């Protein structure tokens, strides 16, 4: 008998970046099998900038939690489970984890498309490779590998690609220069955007959203016509390589979940998200049925680089007190919370080459059945 993926997803609240009591409760109830966990996407309450150590704290907590269940050391967990921690829960956003499990089960006997997940890693990236073609190519290769891990042959069945990428620090810049190599920037914060942008273009390359000949070093953070409608990239200090999580659908998968995606054209484009919920899932915004069946919205947010939203001037890029990515997360988080009626949403800031300039991809994870495993 053939066997297929069964993927489940759990949205779990937390009191802080190291609080896994909600996860433990699911384990104790039998709803969650730790050995089946393949990926965790967390929203932590730091600033989301270079010095946001809540991401590392959360990832380390997960490593120590999973190690005994996986029969390995905490240091080995990250090679087996994709840990993607995104800092920043400004505005109404609530800190939480979205936990993905995967196992192989007998084929259910239907040909419907259901959720599948795949993960992959790039090699470690040298400081001078970040934000450049080398990172684009490495991310593209890892995205293809994650698609294969998910059992997805057609890029059209990919709905969301989550990437965690590294950033530059003063020490990394100095080390590169001592070797005679020049990084793309000397500014640690600016390097976050460079790394996110190159990684997003790598996803676009793998999914056939951009032509290979259009991609070169100078295109990163320059040619805004090049983007992926399905990439979400978060940068952090806690790793030296890219981690890639592909979420999509495959015919005959045994999951009780589906996924669909859309693109917000700007920071207030709630209409696109409402259309996605209605047309793909038959769900009305902020309805009881949506409250029962929605596991999470996964979204990117950014301050429009031209300084305007629908023709009106915004000041997010000129605020010297609060970084623009923090403004954008708060704004888009509020818009999306008003659509779905809850605030534990995965909204990540900095959408360079992730959707059109000023906008960003959004994916919805929705249960096919209202019964089953609790998710919040």
In short:
The protein is of the alpha+beta class.
Describe this structure in words.
This protein is of the alpha+beta class and 376 residues long. It is 30% helix and 28% strand. A four-stranded mixed sheet has the order 1-4-2-3, with helices on one face. A four-stranded mixed sheet has the order 5-8-6-7. A four-stranded mixed sheet has the order 9-14-10-13. β11 and β12 form a beta hairpin. The chain is globular, with a radius of gyration of 19 Å.
**Major beta sheet, strand line-up:** 1-4-2-3
Strand content: 25-35%
Low-confidence stretches at least 5 residues in length (pLDDT < 50)? 370-376
- Tell me about the biggest sheet? 4 strands, mixed
Helix content: 25-40%
Form type: globular
Strand elements, count: 14
Distance between the termini: 34 Å
Q: What structural class do you assign from the helix and strand content?
A: alpha+beta
**Alpha carbon gyration radius:** 19 Å
> How many helix segments?
9
Q: Quick check: average pLDDT?
A: 95
Q: Can you write the helix and strand succession as a string?
A: EHEHHEEEHEHHEEEHHEEEHEE
